[in-house]
Amino acid sequence: MGLASAVIGLLGLVILTDAVTLVIIVENTQRDKCNTNCGCPSQRWYHVPRSFLNNDKNTLVLFEEIGGNPKNISFQTVTAETICAQVEEGALLELSCQGGKTITQIQFASFGNPEGKCGSFKKGTWEATDGQSTVEAACIGKSSCGFTVTKEAFGVTFSLMKVDDGVARLAIQATC
After folding, report:
1. What is the spatial order of strands in the sheet that 169-175 belongs to?
2. Which domains are seen in the chain, by residue range?
C-alpha cells in the first residue's frame, strides 16, 4: 500500500474554508494503549501563522496519533494586539490595528540604531531623544497612523554618522 493510500485510509475529516483545506488524520489506536485523555485530541490549539498561508488555497494536515473527534475542529481568526514596524530613514511608516481597535500604547519606539525584533526590541548605541513622544503623538488613539521617517521629524539636527551605517532606523512596538 502506498503512502497516499495509507493516508487516505486514515482520514477522519476534511474541512474546507475560504483559505485553508484542513485534513485531519486520526490514527486507529487501541484503547488499551491509551493511558490518559482517551478519545481527546493530543493538542488543543494549532497555530497557523499568516505567513505560512498562501493567498489562494491551502492544505493543512494534522496527524492525531491518539485519537479524538475531528468534527470538533474549528478555525478562528485572531486579531493581533501587538503590532510592530521597523523602517529606515526616508521610508513611509504605517501602523494599523485590526477589527476597529485603536492604538492604545507605544511600548517601544526608537529612532537611531535600535536592535532586535518584535517583542524584543532594545535601544542601540544611539537614539533620538524625541522618538517615543513623536510616535505617541502621531499614533495614540487612532486605528491607523502613518508618517515619513525623517531625522527632522524626530528632532535630530546633526549628522547621523553616529549610526553604524549612517542610516537611522525607527523601530516601533505598539498595543491595539
Report:
1. 82-88, 169-175, 105-112
2. 3-72 (no CATH), 82-175 (2.60.120.740)
Say how many C-beta atoms besides its own lie within 10 A of residue 23's C-beta. Answer: 19
SS (H, E, C) 77-127: CCCCCEEEEEEECCCEEEEECCCCCCCCEEEEEEEECCECCCCCCECCCCE
Four-CA torsion 152, 154, 157, 161, nearest 10 degrees: -110
Q: Judge if pTM exceeds 0.90.
A: no
**In terms of C-beta density within 10 A (0-12 exposed, 13-18 middle, 19 or more buried), how is residue 47 classed?**
exposed
Q: What is the per-residue pLDDT across 24-62, written as a single tens digit (0 to 9) for each? A: 444 444 555 666 666 665 566 666 766 777 777 777 666
Q: Are 73 and 22 in contact (CB under 8 A)?
A: yes
Per residue in 71-100, pLDDT (tens digit) is 666 666 666 789 999 999 999 999 999 888
Largest CA distance in the chain: 74
Q: For residue 45, what are the CA distances in angstroms to 20, 41, 48, 74?
A: 16, 10, 10, 10
**Percent of the chain topping pLDDT 90:** 29
